[in-house]
Amino acid sequence: MANLFMISFLHLLIGIYGVAGNMLNDNFNILEELENLDINEEDVEPSWTSERGGKVLVNVDSFGAVGDGVSDDTEAFRKAWDTACSTPKSVFLVPPGCHYLVNATKFKGPCVDRLVLQIDGTIVAPDEPENWDPNLPRLWLDFSNLQGVAFQALQRGSNSKNLSPIEHVNSQTFIQLDLTQYNLLKALTIDSSSFVKVKGLTIQNSQQKNFVISKSDSIGVYGVQVSCPGDSPNTDGIHITGSTNVVLQDCKIGTGDDCVSIVNGSSNINMNRIYCGPGHGVSIGSLGKDNSLGIVTKVVLDTAFLCNTTNGVRIKTWQGGYGYVHGVRFENVRMEDVANPIIIDQFYCDSPKPCQNQTSAVQISQIMYRNISGTTKRKEAMKFACSDTVPCSNIVLSNINLERKDGTVDTYCNSAQGLGYGVVHPSADCLKVRGEESYTKKCCGYEEIDFSAAKI
Ligand SMILES: *[C@@H]1O[C@H](CO)[C@@H](O)[C@H](O)[C@H]1NC(C)=O
Ligand SMILES: *[C@@H]1O[C@H](CO)[C@@H](O)[C@H](O)[C@H]1NC(C)=O
Ligand SMILES: *[C@@H]1O[C@H](CO)[C@@H](O)[C@H](O)[C@H]1NC(C)=O
Ligand SMILES: *[C@@H]1O[C@H](CO)[C@@H](O)[C@H](O)[C@H]1NC(C)=O
Ligand SMILES: *[C@@H]1O[C@H](CO)[C@@H](O)[C@H](O)[C@H]1NC(C)=O
To answer: What stretch or stretches form a coiled coil here (predicted)?
Structure first.
């Protein structure tokens, strides 16, 4: 690993300083890969959604929806869905200004091409537990097997021109669910789908996970807001599982658990301009619970603001799992009053009984943190608590500046290896492999690297 890393580091420097060099084997360009993780947003965005004219409106009101927030509009939604799903060029319309009470419902595809869901009104969930469908205890609005579908909503005060094929202005839009004591509930789920765009929805007060993207590919989420009280348990904002090529952009999330959580089977996840707070930060994991497999690769968070959160950017794994987290870049992140701004926790244990240390663990490597600044609540602004048996490797820190009010700030390492360049405050010397401290020397130029560790 150390060899691989040295070569990568060299590559990185070449990138920074423009030093030419052809002795590098392209197989070893980890850092270059880290720098080029971004996926093309256009690849996930259905392209027809701004098309106007020729649309068939399927208004839930035409199917008997009342929209008074009290009458049961579930059946109207189901019928409207069946029609919209089977009608070419249709727009499933939830009109503005009304509150539609809808039970837990599965909206199944496949549907005809280019279906648009225009959700301008408010969909509310039943709040009495006895009104929940016992057959769907974990779900509320569950959309599955969709290909090429756009969910969109007008945001309050926004200009309709850019958002919708239908003209509405100043409508208030959100999916609302009131808190009750229900367990494991997912408010909005997109499952087993591809090429789905979700734009401008607001999701409020989910009992647990607000928005779940599961077993899907090519999903774009733009301008989505999630809000839950900071003390609501397990209310993840956006949860991504088993999904690839996902873009989250311009999302504002305040919740009682992770603002974003990315778990097993997810790859090519691109997050851009994310606001998080209150909440538990942006997380990869948890992974490896109950000795399970956890694989997450190619995740980029670029431009984020985290305010008053318990964690900033976090990777969390349980003892005893297997699999790996490879290729992650967190960059351009501003933290304000964050308890654990940068944290890898391989001793994660969200269970009433203590977890024993085990010999297997999800392996963590190639994690880059770049341009991350702000204030930390705890002394250990950076914490790399890695598995004793499966160390973290190739952690790269660049331009980190985390401060604490009383001036004491520190980095914790357990079984973690990596390096820093540029400003790294607090210093992260504990990432250097013992006995190899010399290899980065002052860490500011090609010539100063001691290549003795790099045996190609
Ligand atoms: C919605 O849930 C309520 C309470 O369980 C039930 O009475 C009603 O029939 C459900 N509506 C539909 C359309 O299934
Ligand atoms: C920080 O978050 C906590 C818990 O959600 C909340 O009680 C507190 O008011 C927040 N503080 C600020 C300054 O927003
Ligand atoms: C983890 O994801 C892989 C696909 O990458 C899947 O085959 C496996 O079943 C998942 N494991 C768990 C525990 O979800
Ligand atoms: C560093 O990140 C901050 C916060 O996102 C951003 O405002 C700033 O432009 C970034 N600096 C550079 C050099 O990219
Ligand atoms: C597990 O290992 C870590 C790191 O070596 C150590 O700090 C912690 O105390 C151990 N936990 C248990 C329950 O043995």
So the answer is: none
Atom of ligand 2 nearest to the CA of 229: 5
Whether the per-residue pLDDT at 341 is higher than 60: the answer is: yes
Q: Which of 60, 66, 72 to mutate to test the pocket of ligand 1 (most atoms within 8 A of CB)?
A: 72
Q: Whose CA is nearest to atom 2 of ligand 4?
A: 332
Q: Measure 220 CA to ligand 4 centroid, in angstroms.
A: 24
Cα(394)–Cα(392) distance, rounded to whole angstroms? 7
Give the whole-angstrom CA distance, residue 92 versus residue 236: 27
Q: Alpha carbon of 151 to those of 117, 133, 449: distances in Å?
A: 5, 24, 52
* Domain residue limits, the chain: 1-36+281-456, 44-269
Atom of ligand 2 nearest to the CA of 256: 5
Question: What tens digit of pLDDT does each residue of 213-234 get?
Answer: 999 999 999 999 888 777 777 7
State pLDDT tens for residues 250-275: 999 998 899 999 999 999 999 999 99
- Give the predicted TM-score (pTM) of the model: 0.84
Task: For residue 76, give every residue at least 6 positions away whose Cβ sits within 8 Å of its Cβ, in sequence order, or none.
Answer: 60, 61, 63, 64, 65, 66
Q: Identify which of 250, 301, 303 to mutate to test ligand 4's pocket (most ligand atoms within 8 A of the CB).
A: 303
* Nearest partner of 317 among 335, 296, 298, 300, judged by Cα: 296
Ligand 2 neighbours (beta carbon < 6 A): 230-231, 278, 308
> Alpha carbon 247 to chain centroid distance?
9
Q: Exposed/middle/buried for 199, CB within 10 Å: 0-12, 13-18, 19+?
A: buried
C-alpha 394/C-alpha 417 separation (Å) is: 6
What's the CA gap between 92 and 64, in Å, rounded? 14
* 168 given a catalytic annotation: no
Ligand 4 centroid to 302 CA: how many Å?
Answer: 9
How much distance in Å is there from the Cα of 436 to the middle of ligand 3?
37
Contact 246, 265 (CB under 8 A): no
Q: How far is the CA of 286 from the centre of ligand 3 (A)?
A: 13
Structure token pair of residue 75? 């059946």
Cβ atoms of residues 64 and 76 within 8 Å: yes
Work out the angle at residue 156's Cα, subtended by the Cα atoms of residues 151 and 161, and round it to the nearest 5 degrees. 65
CB of residue 75 inside a 6 A radius of ligand 1: yes
